[in-house]
Amino acid sequence: MKQEEKASGFGYGTDSIKQTGKHATKTDSFSLKKGNSKITVDISKRREMSESPHYNKYTISKYDLHPGYLFPELFEHLIPTSTPEYVDSGQRYVERIIRALYYFKQCALIGPSGTGKTHITYLVAELTGLPVWEVNCGLQTSSYDLIGRFIGLGKENWIDGQVTSWLRFGGLLYLDEANMMKQDVATRLNPVLDTRGHLVLTEKDNEIVARHPYAYLIISMNPFSSEFAGTKPLNAAFRRRMSVWINFDYESVGEKISSQEVELLIKRTKIDEDTGYKIIRVGAEMRRQYKAGDLPYAPSIGDLVHWAILIKDGSDPITAAEETIVALTSDSVEIQGDVRRLIEATFSS
Questions:
Q1: How far is CA 97 from CA 60, 109, 190, 217, 340, in A?
Q2: Where are the domains of the chain?
Q3: Residue 130 C-beta-side C-alpha neighbours within 13 Å
Q4: At the topology level of CATH, where does 55-247 sit?
Q5: In this structure, are residues 130 and 172 in contact, taking their beta carbons and an 8 Å threshold?
Q6: In the chain, what percentage of residues exceed pLDDT 70?
Q7: Strand partners of residue 34
Q8: Phi and psi of 53, rounded to 5°?
């Protein structure tokens, strides 16, 4: 496999529409022998943007995020594989995120916990062939963790942080829980995300690290509220650097039951349709109560899958719920009792 030259003249923002016709290729060779003669034939094939089995389920073929470029083999293990498909009800989240990255290089995902923001980020990376540099922006994450630092004595052993490595080598930087980010971290990222497109390593003799042409950014966050401890409004300067904002919500809430979510549950766990529908009904009602402020937690589709797996393994729905959904929702005995009664009522009907 050969690496063609990186596309030049890559602009920023809306000027970053990619050049066409320059695609990385792989070369297959075969030889023909006749008598004492030998002919070697090289056949070059255009690189496909993705080997994901879900690639053709989404309309994204025109949004090649690294035309003419293959990431070094060193980073191949950072490109996700086997990510489950993302099911929505016509919102076209995958296409919208990839389009935002194509035109603007960065976007923000906002929505309650459990709505699939991290899942879809990994799927987008797999579909577009991008290595993922993931950072959880918790209160303990400092700019040194992201930018880098010297280790040992003196200034001989510098270790790049996640952000600096992403700038140098490209790929997809994923900042999870971005509205828990410390202010000093956001300030350091500002020049990276605007037209300057570089980071100054003040810790390392003011080395300037330019943003790789194929370095993209997704941030995700829960809505700012007292319920999500540690969250705070994003710094205005950082916020305006996010060109596109995409809001996420649960597929099934209250009386609205998504047939796609039921089908997905059945597909992943092989449970029967009636049980799958009842599980989603319980999840939908819990999500309604959560949004109304009556429950501290709403189950994701992954949480409901765990419940269904135990049922499929032979546990009855109530016992399986005790080990998964009931205990997950809260430590409060009263709240657990409310959830337990909801499950019993749903499965007795």
A1: 10, 9, 21, 11, 38
A2: 55-247, 259-348
A3: 32
A4: Rossmann fold (3.40.50)
A5: yes
A6: 83
A7: 37
A8: -65, -15
